[in-house]
Specification:
With 668 residues, the protein is an alpha+beta fold. It is 43% helix and 21% strand. The chain has 23 helices and 18 strands. Strands 11, 12, 13, 14, 15, 16, 17 and 18 form an eight-stranded mixed beta sheet that branches. A six-stranded antiparallel beta sheet has the order 6-5-10-9-8-7. Strands 1-2-4-3 form a four-stranded antiparallel beta sheet, covered by helices on one side. The longest helix is centred in the middle third of the chain and has 50 residues. The protein is elongated and about 125 Å long. The two termini are 62 Å apart. 29% of the residues are buried.
Length: 668
């Protein structure tokens, strides 16, 4: 799907539910796109995935979300001016329903890779209409209902009720395509009933009468149509071609050198043409009578450059056709076919042995000869001859395509704009391609800039969170200038690295060795910090400070602080750093915490608990963990093994009873 569909979803989900919900939806579906490019192709499955994620986040049903997305698209494309095109289709909603396929056909020039569905208005009455939807995607039926209801409300002032009355091969919640249990292609076919007040349209349609002057006009010979539209053909009830324009017969002869040139008249239309638009339409009388307001696109089936085609040409007796007369142009076309046969017959062993299907991709290779011609036009019913006439013109974009089909400007309708459009397309094609490439380049640069900005933001966030706890940083972003908290009880840990050689000499090598050793030890300590149970506060000189219970409150702060102390003692011993030792002091109690400073702000702890923890570390012995009485009592109750050290004279505190932490409850 093109990015414009996803742009509409992103815009209105953010507007309706907020940026937080959209971010959550993107996280659920693992969507890496911060924005969508209008003309870029994205996976089809992303649409139902987003709908399912939005349903989970909001509690709405999946069908409601798909319906909402369809409405979003109709609101969104007005920004591109497409609402003017919708309003121009007709005065009534039924006029729009008859023109949906034509709109898709026009849009294919702007969105050449668009896989548009096919929709036909099959019946109408005073209370509404029935439309038939065909597509290669599944799960989009509710999306279409949202589009229909929004178009009716926004552009025609109608409140309609749309629902499915029949469905084939549709799978809710997926767009990968119908599951194929047979070799034949499968198509999603959904029939909708649209209930709305359609009385005005039906009254106008039924009561329209021909003007008396039209009834007095003489009949027109059908050959006049064939001269005015040289690519036109006439169909009877059996869908067989009864008459055809001169140019379409010539073109068919040139594209099918192995076929009898008289075989065009009387052949079934589907034996000579492939119906590209509307998709998967059954070509019979009853169907085409109902689809006279729909633009058809037929592709001429050509013999191609394969073995069977050339064998048919070589073995063909060109001199012994029956007595059917051929006009001069058709005779010339036949001569061209004979020349093509003679020219290629000597190259069969080299060229025609290759298949037209690429084994690597499974797709048809581009032909080295003539390209198939596409005819675009409308079916009209001619009452006088009880037949359908397909009034059409070749679908050609520029001179290169004209030559590849084997036509010339003089072959096109002189009264229409076909020639002017081909020339204009040739003149502006290169300029449009250059502009398109520039816009794509700018779009790519913008996307790279956005990705780079996101990367810088993530790096900045990581740096900020390394200096300030994440919850505190988020509160500061919300405008809280003074972020200060008091905690009833936390456990503060001090770890000092001992025996680092720092004699104060001017020996640079020794100083660098001391810094490297200290960095290795502190890095090992960082690895043992498990957020949010323990938070690293700071390092000052040889001392490493951490806290459990702040900024995230933690009732098990003493246990987590002791666990950290036991882990770091074990880890540093296993590092086998020469002469390096550590000692740990822990104390539990109330503190006040807050962010201090504007440049290089830090999260700091204040209170007597911090001073006592520092004294526990400074009075400790190497490779031991000293606990204050308060901390020791807490962890002893839950199974930690502690041993009384006795009373220790603590600076500023006097005599204090302290304890050694020997092992945790899991070590016994």
């Amino acid at each position: 799907m093109y990015g414009m569909l996803y742009e509409s979803v992103q815009h209105y989900v953010q507007e309706e539910y907020g940026l937080e919900i959209w971010t959550k939806v993107c996280r659920i579906v693992d969507c890496k796109h911060n924005s969508f490019k209008t003309h870029q192709i994205y996976p089809d499955k992303l649409m139902p995935d987003i709908a399912a994620a939005l349903s989970a986040c909001t509690g709405e049903s999946f069908d409601f979300c798909m319906n909402f997305f369809g409405k979003c698209f109709v609101r969104f494309f007005s920004n591109f001016g497409y609402d003017k095109m919708i309003r121009s289709t007709g005065r009534y909603f039924c006029d729009f329903l008859q023109s949906i396929d034509n709109i898709h056909l026009i849009m294919r020039f702007t969105y050449p890779k668009m896989k548009s569905p096919s929709m036909q208005l099959t019946s109408m009455d005073d209370c509404g209409a029935v439309i038939l939807y065909r597509s290669g995607r599944t799960g989009m039926s509710k999306y279409l209902i949202g589009q229909m209801t929004e178009v009716a409300r926004e552009f025609y002032g109608l409140e309609i009720k749309a629902y499915v009355i029949d469905s084939q091969n549709d799978i809710t919640g997926g767009t990968a395509g119908p599951i194929k249990l047979t070799d034949g292609p499968l198509t999603v076919i959904v029939k909708y009933r649209l209930d709305f007040d359609n009385r005005e349209y039906m009254a106008k349609r039924v009561n329209t009468n021909a003007h008396p002057s039209q009834l007095r006009m003489p009949t027109v010979n059908l050959n006049v149509f064939l001269e005015l539209f040289p690519f036109t053909f006439v169909l009877n009830h059996d869908m067989k071609i009864t008459q055809a324009g001169e140019k379409i017969v010539e073109t068919w002869i040139m594209h099918n050198p192995g076929a009898n040139p008289k075989g065009f008249i009387g052949a079934h239309v589907m034996d000579l043409f492939y119906c590209r638009r509307p998709k998967d339409t059954t070509i019979d009388w009853d169907t085409l009578i109902q689809m006279r307001a729909v633009l058809f696109e037929f592709e001429l089936i050509r013999t191609g450059h394969n073995r069977a085609a050339y064998d048919a040409v070589i073995n063909m007796d060109f001199e012994n056709y029956d007595d059917m007369l051929l006009n001069e142009a058709q005779t010339m076309a036949l001569e061209k076919a004979k020349e093509l046969c003679e020219k290629k017959s000597n190259e069969l062993d080299v060229e025609v042995g290759e298949e037209e299907i690429d084994p690597a991709t499974g797709e048809r290779r581009s032909s080295q000869g003539l390209r198939s011609i596409l005819l675009k036009g409308q079916m009209f019913y001619i009452k006088d001859v009880d037949s359908l006439i397909f009034l059409c013109s070749p679908l050609i974009e520029n001179l290169d395509e004209l030559h590849s089909i084997g036509l010339y400007l003089n072959d096109l309708n002189p009264h229409g704009l076909s020639r002017e459009l081909v020339m204009a397309g040739w003149q502006h094609c290169s300029k449009l391609e250059m502009l398109f490439e520039k816009e794509e380049q700018r779009s790519d640069e913008l996307e790279k800039s956005l990705e780079l900005a996101d990367s810088w933001k993530r790096q900045g966030d990581d740096l900020l969170y390394s200096m300030i706890p994440r919850p505190i940083a988020e509160r500061m972003r919300m405008g809280h200038e003074h972020v200060c908290q008091s905690f009833e009880e936390v456990s503060v840990i001090f770890i000092e690295v001992m025996n680092i050689k720092d004699s104060g000499s001017n020996n640079i090598q020794e100083a660098m060795q001391a810094v490297n050793t200290l960095n290795q030890v502190f890095s090992a300590l960082d690895e043992e910090i498990i957020s949010p149970f323990v938070y690293k506060v700071e390092t000052v000189g040889m001392v490493y400070m951490a806290v459990s219970g702040a900024p995230d409150m933690n009732p098990l702060h003493a246990e987590h602080a002791c666990d950290l102390a036991l882990r770091v003692i074990k880890k540093i011993k296993n590092h086998h750093e020469a002469d390096v030792a550590i000692r740990v002091g822990i104390n539990s109690g109330p503190v006040v915490a807050g962010v201090v400073g504007l440049k290089v702000p830090r999260y700091c702890l204040f209170g007597d608990t911090v001073n006592t923890a520092s004294r526990m570390e400074s009075s400790c012995e190497p490779w031991k963990i000293q606990l204050s009485n308060n901390t020791a009592m807490k962890v002893r109750e839950v199974g930690y093994k502690v041993e009384s050290r006795g009373t220790v004279k603590v600076k500023g505190k006097g005599e204090m009873e302290t304890f050694w932490l020997l092992e945790g409850p899991d070590d016994k």
